[in-house]
Model the fold of this input.
Amino acid sequence: MGHKTFARGIHPSYYKELTAAKRVEGSTLPKTVTIPLQQHAGAPCEPLVKKGDLVQEGQKIGDVKAFVSAPVHASISGKVKDVELAQHPNGTRVLSVVIEGDGAVKDWEAGSSRPDLGSLTPEAIREAIREAGIVGMGGAGFPTSVKLAPPKGKTIDAVILNGCECEPYLTADHRIMAEDPEKVVWGLKALMRASGARMGFVGIEENKPEAIRAIKEKLDNSTDIQIIVLEAKYPQGAEKMLIHAALGRKVPPGKLPLDVGVLVNNVGTAAAVYEALVYKKPLIDRIVTISGNGVKEPRNLKVRVGTSFEEVLGQCGGISGEGEIEVLNGGPMMGIAQSTLNVPVVKGTSGITVISSGSFKSKPYDPCIKCARCVEACPMALMPYKLGDYGRAHRLPEFKDWQGVSCIECGCCSYVCPAKRPLLQWIRIGKLKVRQEAVKAAAK
Amino acid sequence: MLGNLLIISAVSMGGLGAALAGFLAFADKKLKVDEDPRIEALTGILPNTNCGGCGYPGCRMLAEALLKGEAPPNSCVAGGSDVAKSLAAYLGVDAKEHKRILAVVLCKGGHAEAGRRATYRGDMTCTAANLTGGDKSCTYGCLGYGECVDACKYDAMAMNDNGLPVVFHDKCIGCGACARACPRNIIEMHPEDHKLFVYCRSRDKGAHAKKVCSVSCIACGLCVKDCSVPGGVVVKDNLAVVNYAVAPQNDESTKRCPTRCILSGIEPQVTKAGFHASKKS
Done:
């Protein structure tokens, strides 16, 4: 019998063998870190420190009152060198705190004890998660505490941990499940307690048997948590696809998983919840997969938030090969291409993929021949060839009529297009224009 | 037999036609929508290019707004003072002074001044390139893919050899399509009598701005000190801003600018013929 999955999607080459068997290693302590004050979806933080202040590792350096937000913390101890605009891996310039380290390292695990989950109230768990600045670590960076507080009249009955990691090259989630299943499972229990859900699931693609085995061992006597083994297909890890594959529930367009009573969190987020509740450690580091044929030694590294890409790549033997390289924040499907290596690792950086010049081709795109391969591939059942044209021409009424805003930006359409049309980029233009139009309308 | 058929056909079709014609004649008289004839007249005065520069979707919409008194008679940016005067005369109101509005490109960092830090391989439009922050070392400056030139319907813009757009002042009608097209908001619409401009949009601190572009505003504040009217030029978010309500439109505040990013009196100067002549030579 085949594994559970969703309709459509694609089967790209995964290249996970580069790092899948490599244990997570610690990275060297960075001398300076640049910590953007916005690493989450929602309102940006305001700085709580100023130039010249001394900060401790884990000290809160930015926060804001807005509900949809998450504070940021110093990832090293040292002196605040500056609070200024700096390049963010998403391409914008964001107010950031630059810290010059003094070399001190804090041992978070010393003297910590695991609290009894039954003794913690859901509110206390939510508050601890917010204070630790935990956001979705799969990439989108939605504040976890906000997801845990459903609006009145809505209840969450199932929590799904997303361990699919369908993005090629990336193995950060795979390693965390294989090496720290304890943290992942305990974190899931904490998330279930905080949201009031009775059922817990861990969705893992079939191509990670080591992770499946490790998590299974930790589930011995619990009946409320199940492992769901899913087909290895892209984008299996998109939350709407995962919910449909795992539970058979469909999230309607424009709605959230919450509307069908489901909460989806990344396995890395669950481990961060464990560290926040047990070690009282805020989210100041994360596992990053550095992979691709443009890097000498692909590795899985535990990197402090704010470390520059250049420094991280330096610890992986640097860039191999000559000529142009493409550096992505994330994997090759959804990652954002970087125009400089002087950008920091943020909470949502699950990987840095470096592709050398031999493996990317650039040629002008051809006219659409209406072959509908993009339609066959789109997991959201949209019409990417139409949406691409509407987005490019800024034809917003048609773009909205054809549900362009439902696009999850997985990139399957661009991947399969035989004419090599940059469909996703055009759809992103359409979505951007729709957002700008909404902002303008709200301003009036 | 055949004759009978012909007569029946002719009579029935002719009768049907006559009945419908009668109905149409009746409908034309009885169901007529009385439209204000002044809308037609005002639309006739307007240029009918439907450029959208006034903020209304087209010239007819502006005509309706003019009649309701929602728009002043000098609303039409493309028509110039002649149209403003005619409109005011027709509406019987005072003709307000009409100032010609022109597009100003507020970035001088072309290929020579601000380099590219990467090679961009996506769709070659500015909006697309800007989605990931762009390939230019300055994240505020002109990307140079010419989306503004494509947006201009009046042949009033072109890209120069330095990768910057140029506005032809003899052709620009001030519709603002280029300003709306620019994803980095580098193009602003200004009345003709504005002479003093800060040709930079960078909000970065001086040290960084200077590193990525040799003609960036470094927020040193010399222009603020040199301006004879207090508050004529102010520094806001690491960028000098001209307060057009009070600033004298001369070159007194530009003289000591170390990066020559605040300049006076260079707009308007380029014409379409002049630009193409200089390209040939």
